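Hey team,

Filing this mostly as a record. A colleague (T.K.) asked me to run one chain through the structure pipeline before their review meeting, and I want the input and output archived in the tracker in case anyone asks later how it was produced. No errors, nothing strange. Just documentation.

Input sequence:
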Amino acid sequence: MIDKLKLCISTQTPFIKFNIPYGDLLDRYDDLGDTVELDKLTEGVDYNYTPGGVTAMVFPLLRRLMETGVIENPSWVSLGPNAPPRVIADKITLHHITIPESEMSSYTVFKEAMWKEIHGLGQLEFKSKEYKAYLSYNWLCARCMLDLREKSDLYFIHDFQQLPIGSLLSACAPTVFRWHIPFQLETVTERLRTFIVKSIEGFDSIIVSTRRDLEGLIHAGYRGRAYQVYPYIERDKWSKVSERSIKAVQEKFGLDSDDEVILVVGRMDEVKSQDIIIRAASKIMKRHPHLKIVLVGNGSFTGSQIGGLAHPKAITWKSRLESLSTRLKIRKHVIFTGHIYDVDLGRFYSLSKAVVVPSRIEGFNLTTIEGWLHKKPVIVSKGAGSSELVNDQVNGYTFNSGDTDDLATKLGVILSKHEESEQMGVNGFDSAKQCFVEVVLEKLQDIFKESIDHYKTH
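Output structure:
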């Protein structure tokens, strides 16, 4: 690896979501300038850190790579409605792209339709207006990254929203593409499958999350350089939780001390399949009258009305879940917390009996690992990539995707066999270690080096 790699990251979702427009920030602060130093602003007022798996992976990776001397002064390109053009945060320069207002809705419609088809929830139509907006967004990102070429030895590009960037940049710099969602294209149209495969061939290398997705690449006809690396988190992210703080969060959300809390963490989105856990819970409620299903999460960056893309899917899905729980007569047993900060999320992990991942299909889901870090047993849908790490009756349970009876059975076991469940949580802590960011650092460095070498020789 060359000394002090100059790395440029690109994600759709920004690391920082700004709560007020840049112009208003300039009015509030006299000395911001063109490049804003984040420590001059107030978290929770001016901005918030964006929740979600991609940004939760990227920042710890960059920080660890800087701490170990592998990289210096990395750049991070992302969408940034309301955001300053450039922000300095923890020695990372954030470059924000703005989509013209006339194209924002069309871009969102196109990428959401692609996402839905890949997840088996609809079919994408390549309408010229929407496709043009998608390509326009990718060109804006690529142009910004080209402007950073002298500061970049490698471009590390994330997820399906940025598929065309490889072809736009590959002639001038090495590119690595990280695919986060399921790579299972058997059910998509031939047109979309061809578009995806040809697009990823524009990158020097691709990284997928699971063995399942690596097999999916081969079945789709991809013959390029591919690697499998499990998603990763910071093990030191969570601090120890006191009994007093647990009681505080119980009071805040109306929980009693004898409630049996089952925790589900994920944005309000159909792909997260919170309906599955609600239906399963209704089947065992008579045997477990103190059961409470706690659904943590709100909208994603796409659904955010402030500083996001303002797509209504989160509001629509939450309404459907509320109606379902009312219809099944368990509404008082289902708690919607909305977005909460990590301090409260850590308390929920600590007080829960188990962490459930109900998604019918999902790329990975890091809440499996976070549950294990809190020594909790997990129950994970076989449709979620993290199910590859679950050994039944050892560190948790898997259940057949969409099967509410199977999930209800596993919930009943967890709630009835306390000692066995606690031991599964302890075992899970050991399982989580393979997803610590420091464990994957060497593998990622090797991928970066091989990609740079491949670019230089082709």
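Quick notes for T.K.: DSSP finds 15 helices and 17 strands in the chain. The CA atoms of residues 238 and 433 lie 14 Å apart.
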